Amino acid sequence: MTSDEVQSAQTSAPRLDGRRVVVLGGSSGIGFAVARLARQEGADVAITGRDVTRLAAATERVGAFASEAFDVADHAALEAFFDKVGAVDHAFVAAGAPYYARLADMDVQEAVASVANAVGLMIGLARIVPARLSSGGSMVFMSGTGPRRPAPGMTVIAAMAAATTAAAANLALEIAPARINTIAAGFVDTELSARLLGPGLDARRKELESTLPIGRVVQPEDVASLAVHLMGNTAVTGAVFDIDGGQQLVP
Q1: 212-238, pLDDT tens digit by residue?
Q2: Average pLDDT, integer, range 239-245
Q3: Residue 108 in contact with residue 167, Cβ under 8 Å?
Q4: Torsions phi, psi of 153, nearest 5?
Q5: How far is the C-alpha of 50 from the C-alpha of 15, rounded, in Å?
Q6: 1, 15 in Cβ contact below 8 A?
Q7: What is the C-alpha to C-alpha distance for residues 119 and 96, in angstroms, rounded to an integer?
Q8: What is the DSSP letter of 148?
Q9: Entry pTM
């Protein structure tokens, strides 16, 4: 086989052939897109979610070998799920929801819990997952770029993003050679975005289509492509990768 033939074979081969991938929060949005792409790339996929009906539908569509409905903030349930799944190669974490509220409208207990739960989930998984990972295995967490531009209502989500980014960088040293990376997304056209923006969704889409350098809105599949790349690239750990269509470049 010539070098060109080898390169062609490497390019065309499924990137995750024979690997096991767990997607927490895989029943919809970005998590579902990651689960589906990982499956298309040859991985055996297990997914979780909180909504039983939606999870069942996603399990069938993805062709997941395992799925379970629970709240990832429940550490015992989380560990039990990984015990059931067994050895894995990669874990992708899209579970959880951002907390947006202006100071006057903020539920302080809910605000504190949202930050604590995000950091706690990362630490909990860092204790549970690496021992189950194969050589070159990884964890990929979702974060956001929006909090880098201070604005009313962004206090809690900004604190959450900063805390999890710092935690991931430090954990990369503690869990080595297992890898941990973060994807910081801008606006992504998902069901969550639709719920948060409500009737303002279409206006936001049009605004971004006219101002983003890429000329379109970022889709869940865009994030999934990056996530799968990070699973396969064993030279990357402790890093944050932005995917926002160039939104941060726009004044």
Answers
A1: 999 999 999 999 999 999 999 999 999
A2: 97
A3: no
A4: 90, -5
A5: 29
A6: no
A7: 11
A8: G
A9: 0.91
